[in-house]
Amino acid sequence: MSTTAALPTPAGVSGKEPDPQLHRIETIPGIGRALIVCTPIPLGTRILCEKPLFTTTSTSYKVMNADITKKLRALPVESQRQFLSLHNNFTGTLYPFTGTFITNALPCGPDSDTAGVYATICLINHSCSPNAHTNWNNALQKETLHATRPIVPGEQITICYTQTWPSYDRRAYLKHQFGFDCACTLCQLPAVLLKRSDARRSEIVSLDKLIGDANLLMSNPQEALAACHKLLIVVNEELWDGGSTPLLARLYYDAVQITITHGDQARASVFAQRAYEARVVCDGEDSPETERMKGFARDPSSHKNFGSSKKWKSKKAQVPKDLGDEEFEAWLWRVEKR
Ligand SMILES: C[S@@+](CC[C@H](N)C(=O)[O-])C[C@H]1O[C@@H](n2cnc3c(N)ncnc32)[C@H](O)[C@@H]1O
């Protein structure tokens, strides 16, 4: 698989309401309710765009329980029923509403300590190799769900409740937080293949940590960019299945930050375009983060880090136009000729 593969243009339906006929609810023994696909869903389709039943901010379980009780009382009976029917992995505890909430809640944004629960999105089960992605769209004040690969009728819509961790870390987290033993296709791989997947995922975790080191960004941007390139190769080996993943969008944005910090507008514009394309698939054209990436692709100098260093100074117009794919990637990732 080429690491340079351009992302297919998503058949997204931004601006259009998601089609409620795309899926139905079914009960699967041992798993509970699930969303099952009725008609083929192309890559990038917005499957759901849902308002939370309510949101609450993380505090003590006791205070959360009181807040949820108040908010539940204010809801229509049908919405109350929807919340009360959600799975609770913490039954028998002192604060039952908090238990149901933390089993199902999704954060309202990546760093937010406010989270929401949803009548339909909270019925989506987990897979370590999911076919869809949820995201809080702050402009719409709704949670969206997009197909991150084509999904066929009869297939269950799944999202990933964990990060891209090795199986031993995923299992421990899922057991503790949700009370189940994951039996997804990835976790059921024969031992030898699972070991290879775990090795790749360990590498993803280490590279992610290295790329997040702000000192490296300033002191050795070449090494930071090489780590992004390596991460792209490992992510494609481990996760590429004809679709996309938010990890791709993130790593391309990391590459934007590294290059623009050192004044390289040419490369930053290409990386921003790729981050934008990955975001369109995962979050939709109207997500604020997608629009932000589009803005950097148009004008990389609008990034707050631009001008910190002139080490790799270039203009956007200096993106080479006459290189073959391989040569272009070597230029983009600053791969030194041996
Ligand atoms: C957010 S709910 C998903 C909807 C749930 N199936 C229901 O009936 O309400 C999360 C719970 O679903 C179940 N679940 C989700 N993914 C699963 C999986 N891959 N294997 C087994 N159970 C799973 C677990 O009980 C988990 O705590």
From TrEMBL:
<protein>
    <recommendedName>
        <fullName>SET domain-containing protein</fullName>
    </recommendedName>
</protein>
<dbReference type="InterPro" id="IPR046341">
    <property type="entry name" value="SET_dom_sf"/>
</dbReference>
<feature type="region of interest" description="Disordered">
    <location>
        <begin position="1"/>
        <end position="22"/>
    </location>
</feature>
<feature type="compositionally biased region" description="Basic and acidic residues">
    <location>
        <begin position="289"/>
        <end position="302"/>
    </location>
</feature>
<dbReference type="InterPro" id="IPR001214">
    <property type="entry name" value="SET_dom"/>
</dbReference>
<dbReference type="InterPro" id="IPR053185">
    <property type="entry name" value="SET_domain_protein"/>
</dbReference>
<dbReference type="Pfam" id="PF00856">
    <property type="entry name" value="SET"/>
</dbReference>
<dbReference type="InterPro" id="IPR011990">
    <property type="entry name" value="TPR-like_helical_dom_sf"/>
</dbReference>
<feature type="domain" description="SET">
    <location>
        <begin position="18"/>
        <end position="162"/>
    </location>
</feature>
<feature type="region of interest" description="Disordered">
    <location>
        <begin position="287"/>
        <end position="318"/>
    </location>
</feature>
